[in-house]
């Protein structure tokens, strides 16, 4: 998958899994407004092939010993949490080596943090 395709997929997954609070094509915020800040999570986003049944997907997740945090209605995109002592890198590699996986990346969320004024309080 090309770099721009991955970026588009990550954007789509962020919206599908994380939701959105406003229109996708909203005006760009003014410089004085808080800017979205990417925050890496301890979860993975996994896209399963449409050829896999729900039972096959569950079997893959069970075999890898992960926790399903959320999924889309169509059952193809899953937000996966990796329990200790396993690592994100280990589980990501295991998904990448599994047949029927179209995409797996670390989940990124975007948050807006209010700026602080001169007295240190939040506006």
UniProtKB/TrEMBL annotation:
InterPro entries: Fervidolysin-like_N_prodom. It holds the Pfam family Fervidolysin_NPro-like. Residues 39-105 form the Fervidolysin-like N-terminal prodomain domain. This is Fervidolysin-like N-terminal prodomain domain-containing protein. It comes from Skermanella stibiiresistens SB22. The lineage of its organism: Bacteria, Pseudomonadati, Pseudomonadota, Alphaproteobacteria, Rhodospirillales.
């Amino acid at each position: 998958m090309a770099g721009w395709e991955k970026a588009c997929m990550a954007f789509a997954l962020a919206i599908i899994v994380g939701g959105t609070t406003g229109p996708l094509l909203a005006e760009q915020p003014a410089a004085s407004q808080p800017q979205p800040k990417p925050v890496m999570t301890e979860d993975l986003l996994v896209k399963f092939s449409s050829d896999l049944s729900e039972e096959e997907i569950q079997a893959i997740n069970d075999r890898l010993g992960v926790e399903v945090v959320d999924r889309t209605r169509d059952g193809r995109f899953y937000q996966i949490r990796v329990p200790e002592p396993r690592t994100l890198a280990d589980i990501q590699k295991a998904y990448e080596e599994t047949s029927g996986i179209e995409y797996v990346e670390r989940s990124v969320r975007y948050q807006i943090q209010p700026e602080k004024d001169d007295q240190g309080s939040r506006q």
